[in-house]
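Protocol step 4 of 6: structure prediction from sequence.
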Amino acid sequence: MSSGAIPVIGLTVVLALSACSQKQDPAPSPPSASSESIATPASAPSSGQIETAVVDFKPAQPELVLVGKVAYGEDRYSKISSPLQGRVVEVRAKLGDRVEAGATLLVIDSSDITAAYSEFVKEASELEYSTRAQELAKELYATKALALKDLKQAENDLIKARAEFRRAKERLLSLRIPAAELEKPLAQQRITSRFEMKSPLTGTVVERAVTPGQSVGGDVGQVLFTVADLDRLQVVADVYERDLALVKVSQVGRINVEAYPGTDFASVVASIGDVVDPNTRTIKVRAWVDNRDQRLKPEMFARLRLDIGDATPFLTIPKEAVVEIDGKHFVYVVEGTDHYLKHEVTVSNVSSGQVRILEGLTSGQRIVTKGAVLVKGQEVKG
């Protein structure tokens, strides 16, 4: 063999060994979608903008949050109209006044009362005359001094007189004339053209739409006063069909309003509607709430929170620690100083501020709890 053949053979062996070595190295497998993590430097956000915490099991109270608004109690407010026509001569209640049931709100001078009372007096006189005529007819008929047809006529006249008297009396009662006054003898009755409109319940004057000298027309649509009991209000909320089984009458809950963040107002479910709104597919839920301190106002937006189970230890984190990307949820796990890894997680709502981790994290891992959006923005830039 020539001396020049040795290097060629040696080179061939080296190449073969090198190729063999490359085939023995396994190719790296791609990470699964559920465990994918992406290194994200966080040099841009300052440390004051990023807060972290260790994930741990915490007892969480499952709750159902319903959106609604504060309203008057169904039987605790009244829109008051005048039952007759007339002119307002005196207004005794002002906006914001607290009035008792039976208190006079305003005084109206009405010709309706005068006309109705005149008719009442006339029919009372007719009734008295017909009563005496019927009694006399009975006596004359008993002595055969009166024909039967005349007795029957007297009895018919008495029936008509009673009906007309009853109609005139009912008319006065509809004008709020006291029944006790009408039971007195005519000479003792003190009925004038002035009508006092009274409050049907104890509460606060929340609306007033009348002034002295104004003419009112007996129209139920012309509301002069609205009186409401503000010490006990209701929250009217909407519950979706899928959650209806979680709501029960007498269930205890809490009310939150934007005016008092962090404050809970105790409430109790009063009623659950029987009709589904065809547009929203929701059912009305009403809950009583104590308001003796007058902090809640009707028409305020409110959230009704109902506990729907016992407190159970869950792996929970703040909702703001979770970022959503393309329909998936991620958190940033702390891997070192200014260095975070993005982990996909599966979450479930527990309350308005907390979520339960179903998959993707384990107890003891430290994650970004505040500023996750900033880390996400830095990742997009980088």
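Step 5 (inspection) to follow. The radius of gyration is 42 Å.
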